[in-house]
Design goal:
Blueprint (H helix, E strand, L loop, with lengths): L1 H15 L13 H5 L8 H20 L3 H12 L8 E3 L12 H9 L14 E13 L3 E12 L5 E12 L5 E9 L5
Parallel strand pairs: 1-5
Antiparallel strand pairs: 2-3, 3-4, 4-5
């Protein structure tokens, strides 16, 4: 059995530059010393981003100038200014994807797109997230689950399925780069 491994060990020694089969290969730590430690986006950060989004959406319906407030919300929470946002709102069917800030603004307060009635103008009394699971990485994170919208007018609760994707901006804030919402399937 020793003979079976003698050749591969010697060959390994040649490949790694070891002088003999008993010397361990030298490992360079230079690249690790120059790189800062990798910090993953945490579940708590995602949950805070969700809470901020919910409160911001509610604030649009309560604002004296909802269009201005919606514009601020989009600028602060979405990543339109730095990249592509994949936004598929719940109540969008004629134009299901909102590729620009103006398209998102139309969805939240109405205007540019005919089918938009101003989703954020309901107004909403409460929005709560029930996360199914998370994918947490260094500069991106995703969450999927169900969120519940409670109407301030009727008290009715609407159940909506979602997937949100976040990216960390240069200031360390999470910004939405993916949002897909849909009503649960019914047969």
């Amino acid at each position: 059995m020793l003979k079976k491994f003698a050749v591969p060990i010697i060959f390994l020694g040649i490949l790694t530059g070891c002088a003999s089969t008993t010397d361990p290969p030298e490992v360079s730590t230079t690249s690790n010393e120059l790189s800062p430690p990798v910090e993953l986006i945490t579940q708590e950060e995602v949950e805070n981003a969700q809470s901020n989004w919910a409160q911001a959406l509610i604030s649009i319906g309560e604002a004296e100038d909802p269009k201005h407030r919606a514009s601020e919300v989009i600028d602060n929470l979405y990543n339109y200014q730095d990249g592509t946002v994949l936004f598929k709102p719940t109540k969008a069917s004629d134009i299901p994807f909102r590729e620009t800030k103006e398209d998102a603004l139309s969805y939240f307060v109405g205007g540019k797109i005919d089918e938009d009635n101003g989703f954020a103008l309901e107004p909403w009394a409460d929005i709560r997230f029930d996360n199914h699971n998370f994918i947490l990485r260094e500069d991106t994170a995703s969450a999927a689950g169900i969120y519940y919208f409670t109407s301030k007018k009727t008290g009715e609760e609407t159940k909506v399925e979602y997937t949100f994707g976040y990216t960390r901006d240069d200031d360390g804030n999470l910004r939405i780069e993916i949002q897909h919402s849909s009503l649960p399937f019914s047969s």
